[in-house]
Model the fold of this input.
Amino acid sequence: MVKGKKLEQWQKNMYALWLGNFATGAGSSMSLPFLPLFVATLGNFPKWELTLYAGLAFSSTFLSQAIVSPLWGKLADKTGRKPMLLRAAIGMTITATLTGFSTNVWMLIGLRLIQGAFSGYINNAYALMASEVPREHSGRMMGTLTTGAVGGQLIGPIFGGLIAGAFGYRIPFFLFGMLMFVATLVTMFGVKENFQPSESLKKPGKHSAFAGIKNVHIVWAMFISSMLIQAATNSINPIISLFVRQLMHGNGNVALASGVVAALPGVATLLAAPRLGQLSDHIGAQKVLLGGLVLSGALFFPMYFVQTVLVLALLRFFVGIADAALMPVTQTVMSLNTPPASVSRIFSYNQSFQAMGSVIGPMLASGVAGILDYRYVFIMTTCLVLINLGVVTWAYHQDK
Done:
């Protein structure tokens, strides 16, 4: 953008939604690392029961999100994306705040389930921008929006940890509610949508979200790719601190080392996402996506052999660069292949697939780690990346 030039409306929306994405990412990640500890304060549970309840509290949000996202997407294509952003922001403001008042574990799980049904702020931010941004700026815009969410997800656990340690595990939920209230105000007053319902939605036989899509197989490949990316990314989360403790032989500040190792991919993604988004605008999203998958597989496999936390941290940092070439680029590919009339429904289906990945990945990792060893989780993750590479390669091969 030239200095002194007035911002276009899509640019103003992008900056407002970046702030909303940041608030959502920070708030939602603020309490997640401490969910098992919060669950432990709600009753005297044996280890297996505590693990079960913590898993339910974590996954219930993603399960309900996977079920209801297509319904919200269909409504968004009829009413506009801004109402859906406000619905998500207000819904999470209420449910997050109430979660902080949970008196038993089932109340916590129930509120997390409801929260998932009303979530979807980041997904709708992508959909709104995809429907309004000039196509030549799609990659850069998706990359920029991603930095908002990722930046929040980096700061959230650190800040939440400090607050929880000083004031208790309930306070991060109240802060989550406050952040979503800020997102509500930013969206209400900072986002303007030029929405016109498509006439095709009113005609019989034209209700399918895939009706106007030329390369349907590519869009489906992006759904599956998004699911596998989330599964691979989240599969490491349940075992990363345990693996770090094993590498350190129980000596030193394991919590600090685990936090650094967990945060490094986000730092790299934050730095790389806008640049890789611009690169996809110049050389094509397909090349960036395939390159990201190859790099991701080449980084996960060596983690099986690591003997020091330093090497693990270095590999995790470069995984973050690969991640920057994955999720934002799949969003770009979908926006380029989807007509404006159905973009919200397509992005909501994609959110459902992402949510399924967020459930499948940790479940697979827990099973593999329990039966074999922590190291075999990295082999499993490499296999997920290779399957993803095969799916994307096949989809683009069909297009020739």
User: Anything to note?
Assistant: The mean pLDDT is 82. The chain has 16 helices and no strands. Residues 7-191 form a domain with the Growth Hormone; Chain: A; fold (CATH 1.20.1250.20). The chain has two domains: 7-191, 207-400.
